[in-house]
């Protein structure tokens, strides 16, 4: 009980900090007073340690029916609002992780509540169709209002899927079909192809590969997993495919001090990509496509320069490989552009772009030439869920109306500036501060320190996420504003000052 | 216009048939008068050919952004109720395909509408959590009310997933982990395993396989697809894995006339299963599990005897392979038991059972020994969707309250009896009538005849589905009653009588 009381007093103090304290290393926000009272809360409010007693009780119960060791705590989503996640013990936390980067405009957004209350939308939530054969009347219209209104330039086609893994799996398939049709010409499928594919053998099942990068994460189903190289726990014991894996640049920070080294590092990786394509073709394994994240997220928030990606795109074109950009985590606006790869300034668009998470539905955009040449080739029962398309249309409306891309740039700058300042003050705890928009991160000395910092922050009312082997990543919602950044920075500054 | 008028008159006539005509080959239902007026419609009502003009217009629009050639017609789900699907041209059809077998209790069921209107449920639909780390307070409770209340005997553990493919993919992974842990003993993972798995190589990524059956369908992501052998269109151009594929029995009908032949056929297939396990082990590819559907659905509604499956289960145990039953299409009650494999009378439960479709959420049940030994091993961002769990809990309540398993047995008998009668009268059009519960099907002479019958039936107000190369399958909802069976049989009897 003593610790609970202490915690409460501390929280109370912290809540006041962001507005009252103006001396020393306090981050002051002009916008701090501007709070959407109907929606967002005005700060964290901690009542117990997290996980609290009720969470622990529920964890035990869940653990009876599945391995629940990954559960952080149980949530009260009814009470969660805006940037704040409320747990079952009544703790209210500023959420900078947003369900592994998948809550676009905050919890319980009024627009979405309204949408769900409209009688004409009821049917969409309870009558889930097989979209590929029996779509609802407004299917195309909702796709145009939502996904197509933010489609990356040059990509006119879109397929929806239920999750990120299915998005990448089906994008691979579209690429393999495209490549085979190029090879085959005139679409004359042979009897041998039709028969051999039924028993998993070439030529019907050709020996094609996707080239991926060490440190990348593209999902956990078997096709995706063959391109995922983030952590051993994601891969161990699962049979895989002999597909080429290139090194991803390991940049040195601060970038301005290591311009030449980083250029060399990127050139080395690009050279390896080309070597692998040639080497695998020699052993009759054709690299049909290259998959890459704009920022390797699960693998540790690894960035590369825009120039690196432009050159990678050139290599793909030169070797006739499809260029697939996985925007499952980076997409949706958090980098300040709707798609992170829009920062690169490509002269030739990506061929395929996959999405999920903040987009509420999975799926992929692609150029017209990647369109399957027959029905039922890219297909499954549900092909996504129109109730997610409906919500996404509303979310995109909010993003546009509230100018949330510019907000991500602005709030991201506040966050990054603060993190750089903390790095200068606590270089033994914080290094390699990096980010684009609010998609920020930093490194800690090691895994143990990282996890300890996350736990302490949580008990002070801030939910953070880890990635890679020692990084902390920021994945707030799109309604994360400057004053939330300052609120976090003040709390975290105190944590670092007292860290032992 | 003439055809429209004719169609209307005919429909009107047909609607009366099921209740008025009592002579000749009319199927009369005691229950025909008992119609839940608030919910189900009382018969088909056709206004145009299907697809009608509005559907055709929408198909053209959709085809601009994705290949829409598989679309049958566009639907008005707001107006669809019970067993009846209404299209955008105002046609109302008795739906015996139910969105590829995925609508459990009919369209716009009042219980689900009510559920969605309750203010306390709003949050579940708009705040989608990352269930593996931040589950909602009622997560375990809803799983207990829904999935666990119908868990196959002996399977105490459950994981939820977003779709059928993800369910099978993750079931495979749980099996591979289980097998490797058996081999490894004491869970001492080596440094070599941890390193090699990151580059897709053994021993970290062992050369394990799932054994599957020719004609089986288990999904379309790359792991699933390696076990799918239904149609070439599902497989062509996608690289695959060299995994063993056994023949599935091809039974002769009527079963009572071919007892010995069918026994021999099943024995042949079982022998091949054992041979393949041994053969693949010799070439150092370990069969970690066997996957099978209780009735091969997409592949053509291929049945085998309960004895066949009991013996297959024995073979799995004998060789130390996991026994995975894919109930994605057969599960949820349509065979008269909640799980089709419950008909077999296994003495040792299946090890893993996957589900999706009618269950509204994907996922899998498994024995405790298949539980991952660490967190994050079976994991993804969403791990299903609690809004689907919420609806499933309601659906299962309805199934129990309204005794819908017995209904499936009863209505299925009415359907099967009628189909056998039609087979006797039209043996040149209908053969191999088979089924369990309402999960019925028959063969037609060829693909062209099958497709023509489906098209004619649709224009007479009945939606049917095809499977395999010449079969028609019945996949009605669980609220499909005897009088719906008789309504269909009368319409179809006329179609067959006039078929040229």
Automatic annotation (TrEMBL), chains A, B:
Record-level GO cellular component terms: mitochondrial matrix
Name of the coding gene: ABAT
Upper classification of the organism: Eukaryota, Metazoa, Chordata, Craniata, Vertebrata
Organism for this UniProt entry: Lepidothrix coronata
Alphabetically ordered keywords of this record: Acetylation, Aminotransferase, Disulfide bond, Iron, Iron-sulfur, Metal-binding, Mitochondrion, Neurotransmitter degradation, Pyridoxal phosphate, Transferase, Transit peptide
Protein name according to UniProt: 4-aminobutyrate aminotransferase, mitochondrial
Subunit structure as annotated in this protein's UniProt entry: Homodimer; disulfide-linked.
Main location: mitochondrion
InterPro entries referenced in this protein's UniProt entry, alphabetically: 4NH2But_aminotransferase_euk, Aminotrans_3, Aminotrans_3_PPA_site, PyrdxlP-dep_Trfase, PyrdxlP-dep_Trfase_major, PyrdxlP-dep_Trfase_small
Coiled coil regions in record: none
């Amino acid at each position: 009980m003593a610790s609970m009381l202490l915690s409460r007093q501390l929280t109370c103090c912290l809540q006041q900090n962001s507005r009252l304290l103006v001396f020393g290393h306090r981050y002051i926000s002009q916008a701090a007073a501007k709070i959407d009272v109907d929606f967002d809360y005005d700060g964290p409010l901690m009542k117990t340690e997290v996980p609290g007693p009720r969470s622990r009780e529920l964890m035990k119960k869940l653990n009876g029916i599945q391995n629940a060791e990954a559960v952080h705590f149980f949530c009260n989503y009814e009470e969660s609002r805006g940037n704040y996640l409320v747990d079952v013990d009544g703790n209210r936390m500023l959420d900078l992780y947003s369900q592994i980067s998948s809550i676009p405009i905050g919890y319980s957004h009024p627009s979405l509540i309204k949408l769900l209350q409209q009688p004409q939308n009821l049917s969409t939530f309870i009558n889930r169709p097989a979209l590929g054969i029996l779509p609802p009347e407004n299917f195309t219209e909702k796709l145009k209002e939502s996904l197509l209104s933010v489609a990356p330039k040059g990509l006119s086609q879109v397929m929806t899927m239920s999750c990120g893994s299915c998005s990448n799996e089906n994008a691979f398939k579209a690429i393999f079909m495209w490549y085979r049709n190029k090879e085959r010409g005139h679409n004359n499928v042979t009897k041998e192809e039709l028969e051999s594919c039924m028993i998993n053998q070439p030529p019907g099942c050709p020996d094609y590969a996707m080239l991926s990068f060490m440190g990348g994460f593209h999902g956990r189903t078997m096709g995706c997993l063959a391109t995922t190289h983030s952590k051993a726990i994601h891969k161990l014991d699962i049979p895989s495919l002999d597909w080429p894996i290139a090194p991803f640049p390991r940049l040195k920070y601060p970038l301005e001090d290591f311009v030449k080294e980083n250029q060399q590092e990127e050139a080395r990786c690009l050279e390896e990509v080309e070597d692998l394509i040639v080497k695998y073709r020699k052993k009759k394994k054709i690299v049909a496509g290259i998959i890459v994240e704009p920022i390797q997220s699960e693998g540790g928030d690894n960035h590369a320069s825009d120039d690196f990606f432009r050159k990678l795109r050139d290599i793909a074109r030169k070797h006739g490989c499809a260029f697939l950009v996985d925007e499952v985590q980076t997409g949706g606006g958090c980098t300040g552009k709707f798609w992170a790869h829009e920062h690169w300034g490509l002269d030739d668009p990506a061929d395929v772009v996959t999405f999920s998470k903040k987009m509420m539905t999975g799926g992929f955009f692609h150029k017209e030439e990647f369109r399957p040449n027959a029905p039922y080739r890219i297909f499954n029962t549900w092909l996504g869920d129109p109730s997610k398309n409906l919500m996404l249309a509303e979310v995109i409306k909010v993003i546009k109306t509230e100018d949330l891309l510019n907000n991500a740039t602005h709030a991201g700058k506040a966050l990054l500036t603060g993190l750089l300042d903390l790095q200068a003050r606590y270089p033994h705890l914080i290094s390699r501060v990096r980010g684009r928009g609010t998609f920020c991160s930093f490194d800690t000395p090691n895994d143990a320190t990282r996890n300890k910092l996350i736990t302490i922050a949580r008990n002070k009312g801030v939910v953070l996420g880890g990635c890679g082997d020692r990084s902390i990543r920021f994945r707030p919602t799109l309604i994360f504003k400057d004053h939330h950044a300052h609120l976090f920075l003040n709390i975290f500054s105190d944590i670092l000052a007292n860290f032992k």
